[in-house]
Description:
- Helix content is 29%, strand content 18%.
- The protein is α/β, with parallel strands linked by helices.
- It has two domains: 3-52, no CATH class; 64-405, L-arginine/glycine Amidinotransferase, Chain A, CATH 3.75.10.
Amino acid sequence: MSCFGSVVRLVSQAQLSCIRSKPLLQKICSAVSVATRRQHVATQMSAQEEKTKIPVSSHNEWDLLEEVIVGRAENACVPEFTTEVKANTYEKYWPFYQKYGGKPFPKKHIQKAVEEVEEMCSILQQEGVVVRRPDVVEWEKAFETPDFKSRGMYAAMPRDILIVIGNEIIEAPMAWRSRFFEYRAYRSLIKEYFTEGAKWTAAPKPLMSDELYDMNYPMHSVQDRHELAKKGQFVTTEFEPCFDAADFIRAGRDIFVQRSQVTNLMGIKWMERHLGPEYNLHQLTFKDPNPMHIDATFNIIGPGLVVANPDRPCNEMHLFKKAGWTVVEAPTPTRSDDLPLWMSSKWLSMNVLMLDEERVMCDKNEIPTMKMFEELGITTIPVDIQHANSLGGAFHCWTTDVRRRGELKSYF
């Protein structure tokens, strides 16, 4: 009857007598049914197409990864040995910066790093992830602002400069002078995302004049730095907002951040006001003499699941335990000293990239870390980027997830 009723709406009363026969009625009903199914499929396809039109959408660190930006090692330069660089690097590498600051990193090392990152991109694509890359830039070129002179550094670590919150991509203002113009390598990509419908925000660019830095910041010993960190004293002052995006880590409506050598309280306050009441920004502190970027200290890998650095314990860990989160201590890194770590520590072993809740890209040389993930029921995708590590980051640092399939939720 429902089929016949549909037919009645399409024909005149005079024509009804012509279609009383059962065969003809069945044909018409069948035609209407096919048309209905086609309309349903078309509606579903339209909804799916509409969803795929969203170029930027990511709420956390673990939903299914669909598109990612992977950095470039090409033309990477050693940053000039300024106060803010000295405060963030290990003393044993200071002679390296004094000798090569403002010049390209060793050519053979960069060639190896480029090859490793290309392999990483290939593996990501094999896992079904769309990979995007920044532009190639000549970072050795000198530049000058009214407040300082410098040379560039690189576009190796998208995580440092870009953070995606929902459908918005935010450019961090940065804190190192050598990284002042780093955003230029990503502009063509971000303009494309914006044209396709994404929100695009660039945080206020700091002047990076001498007032932003404590030019007398004491750097004599690790103990000195521990004491300074306890007091909340860092090489960056509160002269103006500054932050690196890698000091923030996302868990839906809750975002965690640390005050560090490159992220000041004004930068945290700017982000808090910008995001508004829809998000809760939590400031964390760690027993860390040299805090810079949170993801090798505190890496959220799933809903209510954290990998924590046992050498840099979180002073607010009780909040996570109270919320019912699981905190897993990362195993001691096994990396040898054969290759330098000019701008980072061996704890890059925990700087991993989640492709979803059940797959993780991690260092194939860090067997204890791989075992930890396997015990958590997470499949490891092992990749070797040890030369790329020397430039200051592992898988999480070398990437910014542009699109993950998931919705905004509360987990904390």
